Amino acid sequence: MSKAKKSSSDSTITYKIADRLPSTYSMKIQSLSQLKTLFSGTSGYKSRTFSSGKYNWRLVIYPKGNKKDNGTGFLSMYVELDSKSVSSTILAYLTFFIYNKKENKYFTIQDDINEGKQFNALRSVHGFPQVLPLDTFNDPKNGYVFDGDQCEFGVDVMVPLTNWEVVSYTQEFSNPKFHWTLKKFSKLKEHCYVSNKLLAGGSNWVLRLYPKGEDTACSAWLSLFLQIGDGETMNTGEEIYVQCDIRILDPIGGNHLTRKFNQRLSNSTPSWGWREFVSLAHLEKAYLDKQGTLKVEIEFEVVSTTKYS
Question: Cα dist. 49→32, 59, 99, 136 in Å?
Answer without folding.
Answer: 21, 8, 21, 29
